[in-house]
Design goal:
With about 950 residues, this protein is an alpha+beta fold. The protein is about 30% helix and about 20% strand. The strands form six sheets. Strands 29, 30, 31, 32, 33, 34, 35, 36 and 37 form a nine-stranded mixed β-sheet that branches. Strand 7 and strand 8 form a beta hairpin.
Amino acid sequence: MAPPLSRRNLLQSAVSGAAIAAVTPAFSYAASGRAVAAASEAPSVWTVQPFALDEVALGQGLFADKRQLMLDHARGYDVNRLVQVFRANAGLPTGGAVAPGGWEGLDGEANGNLRGHYTGHFLTMLSQAYAGTGEQVFIDRTRTILEALTEVREALRQEPRVLSGPGRFGTAPEQVRGSYQYVDLPSGVLGGASALTLSVWVKPTHDAAWARVFDFGDNTTRYLYLAARTAGGVPRFAITTGGGGGEQGLEGTAALPLNRWSHLAVTLAGGTGTLYVDGTAVARNTSMSLTPAALGTLAHNWLGRSNYPADPVFAGSVDEFNVWSRALTAEEIGGLQDSRAADAPAGPGDLASYAFDETEGSSFADASGRGLTATLRRTWDAPSHPGFLAAYPETQFIQLESMTGSDYTKVWAPYYTAHKILRGLLDAYTATDDARALDLASGMCDWMYSRLSKLPAATLQRMWGLFSSGEFGGIVEAVCDLHALSGKAEHLALARLFDLDKLIDACAANNDILDGLHANQHIPIFTGLVRLYDATGEERYLTAARNFWSMVVPGRMYGIGGTSTTEFWKASGVIAGTLSATTAETCCAYNMLKLSRMLFFHEQSPKYMDYYERALYNQVLGSKQDTADAEKPLVTYFIGLTPGHVRDYTPKQGTTCCEGTGMESATKYQDSVYFRQADGSALYVNLYSPSELTWAEKGVTVTQTTDYPREQGSTLTIGGRRAAFALRLRVPSWATAGFRVTVNGRAVSGTPTPGSYFTVSRMWRPGDVVRVAVPFRLRVEKALDDPSLQTLFYGPVNLVARDPATDYLRFGLYRNAGLSGDLLPSLTPVSGEPLHHTLDGTEFAPFFEGTEDPTHAYFRRSEPRVVFGSTDSGVANPAKGDGTTLLDEVWAAAPFRNKEALVSRVRTTVDSWVSAGLLGRADGDTAVRTARKASYAR
């Protein structure tokens, strides 16, 4: 029997589980709020394992400051707003909560087709915030969301129930916007009448055009309707037997007010139709030859729903709907303004009469005497499986199965949204042990399996290959994590149903097909493939993920660690050619970090953690604005790398994917600071960050004290009990200025190599102190396709010029370069501003500072003359055809042990260039003399 595995360790370590007994339902909520699950230990293919977030506490410093800003948002945002869209979809009361808007709103991009995703992100943020701080408020807010989602799923399993509110007279059913509910009247309600009056009280809550108060028809050819508002904003009645072009209609003269009762009535008799608003005739048409008799018996008789599928469902309340088989007089219409029809001279409708006094159930009584009981229904009927949970109908999932081309205004990544909700539920379970979260997650996967397992393989391949509509995010990783808890074979089978074979096979064969693909649609696929390898042992999954990573880094990576331009990839090696205001989508960096971390568990290649440091300390930190705001996370979507770009921390209309991943990133900064060898024999220190590790299995604590990257090193203090293990300290690939380690003040022997781990093995005792010195150097990184376009780094920190100019700035850096090759002496430090420097009067500042200053991440390198040690030779700096200059070739040999070595390098380089006809002998001799005369910094 497998030993118990805690939810915290299993899900945060993202391990794979062995099969355990499946239970249906898989989990149920008990009074204790805990679920019991057993699973195997971490897979043997993981040679290192991460620590849980609550085992690594952040100390004061850059990361803690950034996190605090996001915690203000996590504490302050009204979580009832997040669940509003779920409650509306289920026809439940929303308590007056206002939907978040943006991508979460019906008025947002693509009509809110992605709504629900942000709640998943928020759940993950709350769970991580609790793990990192232990504050009860985050657990309480998580449970508020879980309670609402549990209620939502139960409501979706049932027939819709009336949501009753104050009516014009007594009570009235309310249709919350986003509920997709309507009232279905029995066939024959119009009775084939040759004369007609329809009367209704309405209180619209939204100004959507063409929402129907009622619509009786067969299709879009034969119908009779009353719309609360046309595209012109006024009410309209129409009848036709020939579609829209044959409509005979009546239009009002003014818009109906929102959130206020208005009375509408239509009379039709003798070829004349009249539209009344609040008892006043506002339109008359004496050429209306059509009547219900001409329409015959109609299939659809709806209140609140249109026969045109694209039209919105009516949002608001209706009261007192009556239908008479005659045209009421103006006086009789007037008599309906202050009393129910039953109490007015006209009396109740003889064809239909609904008072809508019901406060429960899903049916409405007819007082006409004809017994035409009406029924509350959903436009999309009911979920196909009891596990369904979403903030919109199941229709997006259904439509995706028949799509042959992408159209995100109709179907926008429904399985991506399902992934975000699923991931949030699993993280909530990790944080709270609340079995409702796991039950909801398991139900979602049961539902997805019930849908997808019935589809032909060709259909699945077509779906997942669709841009945007077929995007599914990191759902495979999340499903594998659930499988580790549930042990259900169907869950592992579900994860494999998302295989996109043409992508997997190409990457497994190291065939780069990324050009033209949407970046963030594909990056998380590969994290899921690594998890599938863990669960199945199928090598092509892991091989594809490794090869894919190398297709992105460095060939499609910007200096800050980001990737993508306008969300897509171009050919490998094209960097300068893709710089724009819409480079480096923030989600891409988030997902590349996850993939790098996951690959490191299998192969401890330092390149993965080098990348992790680059992207974390630059793009991820810099994507969060350094401002507190309870209402907004203040995170970028794109980070433009064009000259003078100003970061936008409130992108698009809000609640975007990047704001969601930004919330997550800012509450898990500590997740990769330390890893442990699977057998407990070693501790990896991957990042230099103020923190305290509790290594429970060893009974050891490690406290890291540093102000890195403002400090060029770190101090680690061992606590707890004695323990033997190897301490593996990452030597960054850029650490070419020396990397020194002391233990208790004594130097550790060995030669640290940049881009590796330096190991110190011993029996560690409480109070042992390890000091790591990591001297920084200023260096440039060149765009792969344009070496003259460069970005500046000081140690791990990308430095950006702050200047409003929109053309590339031009700078030279060799003028005072040190013998070590360090370019820093050419810059002037800014007093009192760590990591700030000036060059030619322009300030350079760390990219990670979340300001709204216009910045230049890249500049044009300009070294017009040969200068050594600030001494100008007066000789033009010649260049080869590929752009390499004489000075480039001289300094490529740095570091130099002394001045003589540098002068010797200058002489041999000059001789070579003179021989090649690239430099005159006289100018070459001048350059050598200048190098000999100059003084240099070390």
